[in-house]
Amino acid sequence: MGAMTILGRDDSADIILDDPGISRRHSELRVTTDGPHFVTTARDLGSTNGTFVNGERITSTHLEDGDRITVGRTSITFRAGRR
How confident is the model over 48-76, as pLDDT tens digits? Predict the structure, then answer.
């Protein structure tokens, strides 16, 4: 299943963002493995305003080091960790 992190305004979110343009449970980041490699996927959770990666609205997409995730007015730069 992999490690999952929820972004949103709700107190139950793993990363709580104080931004009125963000849904209570806005999006998730999930880390899984593909053999020896880590794969991180960003997925929108049916938010009103959408989740964007590098300016493109997504439902689900794999992330690469340096990708910019935008939810509401908040932007986050994804940095892939090294094993």
Answer: 999 999 999 999 999 999 999 999 999 99
The answer to whether the CB of 8 falls within 8 A of the CB of 32 is: no
65, amino acid identity:
D
Distance of alpha carbon 69 from alpha carbon 42, whole angstroms: 8
How far is C-alpha 67 from the chain's CA centre? 11
What's 81's DSSP letter?
A: P
Q: Where do the DSSP E strands lie in the chain?
A: 3-8, 15-16, 27-34, 37-44, 51-53, 56-58, 60-62, 68-71, 74-77
- Please state the length of the chain: 83
C-alpha distances out from residue 40 to 3, 32, 57, 61, 78, Å: 9, 6, 17, 9, 10
